[in-house]
C-alpha cells in the first residue's frame, strides 16, 4: 500500500537529487530512507529510480508516483487548513520583515501562496535598510523576521529554514576566477560591494573577515542586487551573496562565483517568531509553505541538520 510518507520521501528525493540530502530533509537516516524505498519497490514490484544516476533519474513508475504526490499533497494541505479554520485558528496577524535582502526571489511566491490560502489573516510587510526588525519583533510590532543572524531575545524563537553558501561574485576577467577558493587576506586588496546595513548583519564580515581581523581596501554600498552585479561585472568591486541569489547572473554568464574559504561560507536562514505564536495554525502553515517554496525554487540550498531544529 502506498502511504503519505512514501510520497513525501519521493518528493524530497526529487527536490534534492540525493539520498543523503533527502534523508536530512525528512529527518531520517540514509539507511532508513533506503530501506523505506526498497520496501516500497518490493511491494509495488517495480523500480522507482535508477541507482547511482547523476543527475538522479526516476523510472516510469517513479514518475507516476511523483505525479500522484503532486496531485495529492496540495489536497491534504488544503484539507488541513480547512480543519484548522474549523478549530478556530484562522484569525490572526502576520506582519513581517527580512534581514536577508536577497530573499525576495522566494519569499514573494511564499507570501502570494499564503495570502490565497489564509485570506482572513491580516498581512503586512516592513522593509528598509535602517530598520532593526528583531527588536521590533520582540516588542510585538512584527510577527515574523527572516534572518541569518539570530539574537538571544526574550520570547523569540528561531525556526531554521535551510542552509546556504555565501559566494563571492567577481568579474569574468578577475584573477580570482582561476582559484578554487579565496582567503580572507586576499580580500584585503579588494573593493567590497555590500548592502547599506551594519557590518555585523553581513555574513562576509561577521563570519569571514572580522574573525580574521581583515579589512577590505574599500567598501561601497548598493541597495539593489542588480546594481551590485553591474558594479561587479564592470570590474569596480566584488560582492558576497547567497549562492541562490547569484544563479540568474551566473546562468547569463554575467559574472563568476568563487568560494569564500576552503570549506565555504555556510550559514542558516531562520524565521524568527514570537514564541506565543509558534503553535498557531497559520504560522505553522506559513513556515511549511516557506520551506516548500524555497526548496522548489532555489539552487544550492541544503536541508537543516536535525540538531539545528528548535
TrEMBL record:
SUPFAM superfamilies xrefs: Periplasmic binding protein-like II, Winged helix' DNA-binding domain
Gene3D superfamilies: Periplasmic binding protein-like II (3.40.190.10), Winged helix-like DNA-binding domain superfamily/Winged helix DNA-binding domain (1.10.10.10)
Annotated Gene Ontology cellular component terms: cytoplasm; protein-DNA complex
GO molecular function: DNA binding; DNA-binding transcription factor activity
Statement: the UniProt record of this protein carries the keyword Ligase: no
Subcellular locations according to the entry: Cytoplasm
Keyword annotations: Amino-acid biosynthesis, Cytoplasm, DNA-binding, Methionine biosynthesis, Transcription, Transcription regulation
Domain HTH lysR-type residues, every copy: 2-59
Domain of life: Bacteria
InterPro entries in UniProt: LysR_HTH_N, LysR_subst-bd, MetR_PBP2, WH-like_DNA-bd_sf, WH_DNA-bd_sf
Family of this protein: Belongs to the LysR transcriptional regulatory family.
Record-given protein name: HTH-type transcriptional regulator MetR
Protein species of origin: Oceanospirillum sediminis
Amino acid at each position: 500500500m502506498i502511504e503519505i510518507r512514501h510520497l513525501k520521501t519521493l518528493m524530497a528525493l526529487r527536490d534534492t537529487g540525493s539520498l543523503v540530502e533527502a534523508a536530512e530533509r525528512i529527518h531520517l537516516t540514509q539507511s532508513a530512507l533506503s530501506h523505506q524505498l526498497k520496501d516500497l519497490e518490493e511491494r509495488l514490484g517495480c523500480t522507482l529510480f535508477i541507482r547511482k544516476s547523476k543527475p538522479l533519474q526516476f523510472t516510469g513508475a517513479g514518475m507516476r508516483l511523483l505525479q500522484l504526490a503532486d496531485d495529492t499533497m496540495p489536497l491534504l494541505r488544503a484539507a488541513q487548513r480547512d480543519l484548522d479554520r474549523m478549530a478556530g485558528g484562522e484569525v490572526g496577524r502576520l506582519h513581517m520583515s527580512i534581514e536577508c535582502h536577497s530573499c525576495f526571489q522566494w519569499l514573494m511566491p511564499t507570501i502570494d501562496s499564503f495570502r490565497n490560502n489564509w485570506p482572513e489573516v491580516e498581512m503586512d510587510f516592513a522593509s528598509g535598510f535602517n530598520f532593526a526588525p528583531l527588536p521590533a519583533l520582540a516588542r510585538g510590532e512584527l510577527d515574523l523576521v527572516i534572518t541569518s543572524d539570530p539574537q538571544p531575545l526574550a520570547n523569540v524563537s528561531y525556526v531554521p529554514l535551510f542552509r546556504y553558501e555565501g559566494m563571492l561574485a567577481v568579474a569574468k576577467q578577475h584573477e580570482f576566477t582561476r582559484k578554487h577558493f579565496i582567503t580572507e587576506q586576499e580580500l584585503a586588496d579588494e573593493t567590497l560591494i555590500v548592502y547599506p546595513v551594519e557590518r555585523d548583519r553581513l555574513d562576509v564580515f561577521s563570519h569571514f573577515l572580522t574573525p580574521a581581523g581583515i579589512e577590505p581596501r574599500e567598501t561601497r554600498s548598493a541597495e539593489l542586487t542588480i546594481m551590485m552585479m553591474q558594479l561587479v561585472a564592470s570590474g569596480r568591486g566584488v560582492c558576497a551573496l547567497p549562492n541562490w541569489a547569484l544563479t540568474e547572473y551566473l546562468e547569463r554568464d554575467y559574472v563568476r562565483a568563487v568560494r569564500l574559504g576552503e570549506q565555504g561560507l555556510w550559514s542558516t536562514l531562520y524565521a524568527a517568531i514570537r514564541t506565543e505564536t509558534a503553535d498557531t495554525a497559520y504560522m505553522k502553515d506559513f513556515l511549511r509553505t516557506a520551506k516548500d517554496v524555497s526548496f522548489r525554487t532555489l539552487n544550492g540550498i541544503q536541508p537543516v541538520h536535525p540538531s539545528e531544529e528548535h
